[in-house]
Amino acid sequence: MLSLLCLMLFVPRVFSSSTPVAVIFPQDPALRMGSSLTATCTVSPERGLHANTMYWTMNGKRLPSSTYDLLSPNCLSVTLHHLNGSQQQSGDNLVCHSGDGHVLAGSCLYVGMPPEKPVNLTCWSRNTKDLSCKWTPGGRGETFIKTKYTLKYKLRWYGRERECEDYSTGQRYTCYIPRDLALFTPYEIWVEASNQLGTATSDVITLDILDVVTTDPPDNVHVSRVGELEDQLTVHWGIPPALKDFLFQAKYQIRYRLEDSTEWKVVDNVGNQTSCRLAGLRAGTVYFVQVRCNPVGIYGSRKAGIWSDWSHPSAASTPHSERLQSGSCEPKPGEQNSTLRRELKQFFGWVRKHAYGCSGMSIKLYDQWRVWLQKSHKTRNQIL
After folding, report:
1. Nearest of 100, 139, 300, 273 to residue 213 by alpha carbon
2. Is 345 helix (H, G, I), strand (E, B) or coil?
3. C-alpha–C-alpha distance, residues 109 and 183, integer Å
4. pLDDT tens for residues 75-109?
5. C-alpha 3, offset from chain centre
6. pLDDT tens profile 248-269
7. How far is the C-alpha of 287 from the C-alpha of 315, rounded, in Å?
8. Is 43 exposed, middle or buried (0-12, 13-18, 19+ CB in 10 A)?
9. CA 189 to CA 181: how far, in whole Å?
10. Closest CA to 133 of 104, 99, 175
């Protein structure tokens, strides 16, 4: 097809006859980068053209006469050394002209490199209904000529080899298989790269669709205050709708950030619950929160699934501190202040520093604080 398109560009404009005005040899060659080429342009004798009046161009630029060689009255050659990669994947245009500039004949040069072995082949299935795979070209990835990548797959122990057909996902080096996939049996999947200079094949990966499942983000994510607690927010969400009828145990992750920050803090210890209390937050501050899901153990699969995308951000603000609102000052030295109030203040300060993620002010947390307080008192007494 490329050769046909290239030849159509070089239909002579002034000579009308079924006999070609001139012929270039070789026609549409494929060459490795760094190689040399000698091409000839032979004019039909009956045309009355003399080769010493002709000249050559490459991609519209006239080639120096020092590269020419007059082989006969009707044959002019050109020699090109150390060829660079083609400037366009459809080939470089090498054209022979008559002395008055008219096109006599043309050839497309495909100068590049054979493909290298594709790498980093990975696949995922959205809700077990389909399969998408992506890969990376081997080496530097640039062959300078058109290179075709074909994703192939087959059932491991039986079945015929098949080719993925949908490469229109909007991302390069990606293919989508929308249907007709078997569950509970492994597939062998690989990628073949080919161009006019050679072929290369990736390593074969083996996978079961149930082991590479991902899903939609959790829906109905809501963030709300925990009463008047100034340093906490509660997050609730729903199971991804597409997985409600599946037998699986989900894992969830939460991430949150301040309104004026781009740095996210990730909470990993959520487990399979669909709510979480975030503690240790700033008072009177807006937080953005997102949740994502990992469908673990779909139909008994022993492998972890693949994390979904993050949900759309949901936002809420923590209550303002009552002390800040009232404008009260810290007690002056010597003012009467009960031991309980002082220790509670220390406790809440310690909680803000140490309690984060899916956490509440539990008895366990209080016990940890008491240990810290005892160590603090012991250290202070030693200094005194």
Report:
1. 300
2. helix
3. 47
4. 999 999 999 998 887 889 999 999 999 999 999 99
5. 34
6. 778 899 999 999 999 999 998 7
7. 6
8. buried
9. 13
10. 175
